[in-house]
Amino acid sequence: MNDSGNVTAPDDLARKNGLAMLAQMLLIRRFEEKCAELYSGGKIWGFLHLYIGEEAIAVGAMRSIRSEDAIVSTYREHGHALARGLAAGPVMAEMFGKTNGCSGGRGGSMHLFDASRRFYGGNAIVGGGLPLAVGLALADKMQQRPVVTVCFFGDGAVAEGEFHESLNLAALWQLPVVFLLENNLYAMGTAIERHQSRTDIHLKAAGYGIEAAVVDGMDVNAVESAMAKAMSRARSGRPYFLEARTYRFRAHSMYDAELYRSKDEVEKWKQRDPIHLWQQRLRQKDLLTDTELEAIEAEVMTQVKAAVEFAERGTWEPVEDLMKHVYAPVTT
Amino acid sequence: MTKSTYRDAIKAAMREALQNDPRVFLMGEDVGRYGGAFACSRGLLEEFGPERIRDTPLSESTFVGAGIGASLNGLRPIVEIMTVNFSLLAMDQIVNNAATLRHMSGGQFTVPIVIRMTTGGGRRLAAQHSHSWEVWYAHVPGLKVLAPATVTDARFMLGAALRDPNPVVIFEHAMLLPMEDEIEVVGENFNMDRAAVRRAGDDVTLVTYGGSLPKTLAAAEQLAADGIDAEVIDLRSLRPLDMPTVIKSVAKTHRAVVVDEGWRTCSLAAEISAGIMEGAFYDLDAPVVRVCSAEVPLPYAGHMEDAALPQTTRIVAAILEMLAHHE
Fold this sequence. Notes:
The complex is a heterodimer of chains A (332) and B (327). Chain A has 332 residues and is α/β, with parallel strands linked by helices.
């Protein structure tokens, strides 16, 4: 019910949810754009892999992921982290390398972790998270917890042995894992036709006895629906494979000269920018006005600005503490 | 005191852990129906059931990674990698996940996984099945590495490893499996991080670990007949290395020989030698001698493999030569 005691009409709910998803996608987009700026400005170092263009997947999928479920991700995980609810400040601070970063400044862009949100990173080895996801799910199943582990990975990981081993084991032991492939058509600089003998990757899942679906990763609503089904299946106690087809509008990382794809191809995919598509859909349904959009953009920029300030305010870890976090203390 | 084989001691350790802690489970290739490739888990499947004794597909990377994931999430897995030779397939999970998750996350996670592996050569299994990779694991901050060389340590190190919140890798030398001995009564001061003096002596310090301990003790006995009194130190823990115990011994004997089944180049013996140089330089009457495997992939033919591996005769010869040249 809303404040005046009326039952909330479906339109209101659709509007609320629709605007929320738009705001989340915009937050990720503006956050990533700011990261690119800060990287060039020497505030962020190392490797930076931007999620620009793929926002609909993190945001749409997260709608069905509960707080008690687990998430394993990749080095392109800023979007997942923000959609999961990690505050923008600690995420930005982590990339600055400050102590108020979500990994204490020890991890950086590729290693965002949050134990309180069951966010298990942030993994820099392609395919390295899949076995972890299998184990997390195994432990939940063995302890009879009705939770799901969601494992995000890219098309590059499909070529690694771990992909095949993990799907096989998850199916064999009937583990509650959603294997969520974000197929952006490139494994760094290698197009999928050049690294996969069969490019309809979701079809591989059938080879392991895992139910699979493919979804347009640029359509946040479609992703939401597809993921709702995926989570429901996994929650009943078996693995599920969801391929979300997407595209990254920026380079693989900040070092990438993008020699391997044409500017035309990028422009073509930008016509299907998930944020623009969603804005259009909301407007079509009279669920978004210009004023509202402006307000959302302004709010997002405030959050991003606040995140940068939070990061700037953070302190550097004293070098004397270098040897911390290597071993957990042994308690007798 | 009960007598047991090293193999049965391992099994007893696993049984005790499975009985006392419902979070513990065993996972690996052929640990269940086959009874364990080295018979260390025979009967456990029948006793504890398939939920807790899990036969895995031949997927080292994923079942080790799954063990890591399970250990992050409330359980205490014992992951058995059939031999150290196959562990190379799981190196990424062990080094990039088990050893580093705590650090990368700024201390948010612990990874209390125990990984057991059979190690070593001497069984005519040729190059791919005879490795001693202890040094590779001992190199990695974030891991703890154990090498039980006695039946007592085989019996109790596993329990200590399971109580440790860090990832622990335990190397069980294949040649030790049938070894029979008394299981000592151990108290609360049982540790998994300190070396043990297995034989006291004044003339030379022999430092070793794992499968080389019996050969080193045999060498000490032979030397005793020549009036040379050797002190034998069993390292027990390879990471952390208990250098203080080694240094204390060398300060007394002024001579050190390290016996290590790994290849000589970049070996654990090299690490120990450096440590002795750093900690006991002015106490040494002679350079540290290393007795290691020859720089060759281990051959199949028995006499060739024997020639490649450290043997009692080679250990004795090395010590006699050291004494002859540095009186």
